[in-house]
Amino acid sequence: MKPRVLIVTPSLSAGGAERSAMNLAGALAGEGWKISVAVLNETPGPAITVPHGVGLFSLSTARRTHPLVAILHLAVVARQFEIVLAAQEAAATTFSWAACRLARRPLLAWTHIAYAKFESAMLPRDRFIARAVYRRLPHLVFPSEGALRSLATVVSKPASATWRVVPNFIEPRSDDPAAPAWREEWSAWFGCPVLLTVARLVQQKALDRLIRAHRVLLDQGVAHHLIIAGSGSELPTLRAEVNRLSVGGTTFFAGHVENPTELYRRATVFGMCSRFEGFGMTLLEAMTAGLPVVAMDCESGPREVLDGGRAGVLTPDGDERAFTDALARLLTDPAARRHYAAAGRARAAEYTPERVMPQWEALLVEVAGRSRPRPVRARP
For the segment 299-343, what is each residue's pLDDT rounded down to a tens digit? Predict the structure, then answer.
């Protein structure tokens, strides 16, 4: 019998980790698993939808006076399930660990990011608590080998712990008549070649690098437009950079796009220049749509998703000149674009639910089975 699974997420914000968690929830529910999602906080800004057939518990700490209340509430909910999956690092993992101790339920923690880079922005107290919890986790899963290695640089793997890599997968997007994927104002943006990125507008994504590359390309005579799809706290800073470099007439902010498939299909090149990742879901989305990709070789994710540079162009981490040169090549060379479009599609075909879900199902059954108490033999 398939164990009942509770997936704990900090919010339903439109980030890559949250999308991956909902992809998994929907795929498991489609295979007959009983799946519910527990959300710790209210979502600030655009939210993603909980898949059909998946239950929902709201544990918003914003409505409570102390996080311990949310942990106690989560423990009560967790007792209804055979296994808890903490779907993100930080609060989702620490809260779930405490709740599972109280509820006596097994926990599988999912760490999506290059943790060594991620924790540098944490408060010292939160960093101490998180490391203490990670040292006590018996089961961890990562979307990439790079994400696993990153955590290993700050937390030693306990001898009894199981650390496993299961890659993210991409669900085919279907057109939703109730939420049109194309906006009329976008048509004018595609009057020339388009350099596209889809990302949260946060410091981690380093989109100021992309805007500077756009300026250099225009100075080199490479006619194109830059489209940035996404929302986040860095929008005012990025707009200021656009104004400083006088590229307001060729740079367009699309805001949050629930289904960016048509942007991927119509763009010329996709660019990613993050300071760090964990996997890089938007790379996979672009490749699936046949959009050639240029990415900085940051820690971690792009190198694995792009198969070491065979499925897309990798440039040295933080090297803006090499990144700009690679963009220039693809924007001006149709043969190179065709090559990487085909290679990207072939690589993306390895990240389908049909290939990845058996790994997830086997892992969940294994974790639940290991945590079941062994029967006590009667003494003769």
Answer: 999 999 999 999 999 999 999 999 999 999 999 999 999 999 999
DSSP 47: B
Burial bucket for residue 189 (CB in 10 Å: 0-12, 13-18, 19+):
buried
Q: At what angle do helices 334-348 and 320-332 cross, to 10 degrees?
A: 100
Each residue's pLDDT tens digit, 24-68: 999 999 999 999 999 998 877 778 889 999 999 988 755 555 788
Closest residue by Cα to residue 298 from 306, 310, 290 = 306
The identity of residue 11, as a single letter, is S
Q: And the tokens for 69?
A: 């209340």
**8, 24 in Cβ contact below 8 A?**
no
Claim: this prediction has a pTM higher than 0.85: yes
- Is 23:169 a contact under the CB 8 Å cutoff? yes
